[in-house]
Prior knowledge:
Elements: H1 5-8, H2 34-40, H3 57-62, H4 81-89, H5 103-135, H6 142-156, E1 158-159, H7 163-172, H8 176-188, H9 190-197, E2 201-214, E3 220-232, E4 248-249, E5 255-268, E6 271-282
Amino acid sequence: MTDTPDEQRPRPAPRPRPAPGPRPSPRPRVAGSRRDREDETGTRTARPAPSPRPRPEKAAADEPAAPAKPAKTTATARPTKTATAARQAKPTRTARPAAAAPAAPRRRRSALALVLALLCLVAAAGVGLLLWQRLNPSYVNSAIFAAARDGVQALYAYDYRDSEGSIEKKLAVLTGDLRQQYETDLEQGGIIEAYEQVSATTRYDVLDVGLQQVNDAQDTATLVVFGQYVVESVNSGEQEAPEGSECQVTPEGAQSCTQTLKVRMLQVDGEWKIAELTVRTTS
């Protein structure tokens, strides 16, 4: 039996696979390297598996080479609960804007200065208004004017036919030191005796009353009273009026002199009294 051409050809022998070379050894660890930092933070890195020792070349030629194993991936350990809690508990700082910090105190100081200035203006206006109202009250009790008119008329009135009654009426409208002064003068009897001898009668005819000052409570007031002081007696019509007094003799035979009085009125137990009296002019 003859061989075919294909059978006569020699078959090539299989080539032996080369043995794998030694793997590189792991690098030595250096202080402060990444692995050290990971170990300090609580991470754990798997150590590389030791590389297999190389086999002799003869055994490698006889035996087929084992397939290379894939390199194991390094697994990184998860951070522990303690490290996670420490990072969460650590407070975060918020940076403050550098430009806005000095502007806020300046605005507060400016607003405070403006408020103080407005308060000073309001206080000054209030003081001015109170002073103006005190000197020029918008409302004055009309009883003050009536009390001044009646008080001056009672103080200057006298009738020789009722001497005691006239004295009581005079003292009834006075108070304080002025009342004591009138009591002393009237008890001596000099003026009353002279009036009785000439059968004198006196009166004060009020022409006008003006308010000079009144307090806030309107229980103290200073007024100016304008009027004529009239004296009539048995010989008043026969005597000439004193020169320079600008007094005149009336057709009824009485002497009438213009007088301006300044009186200070006080409210005592609900009634107005004359505390001071000054004759300002006699024209």
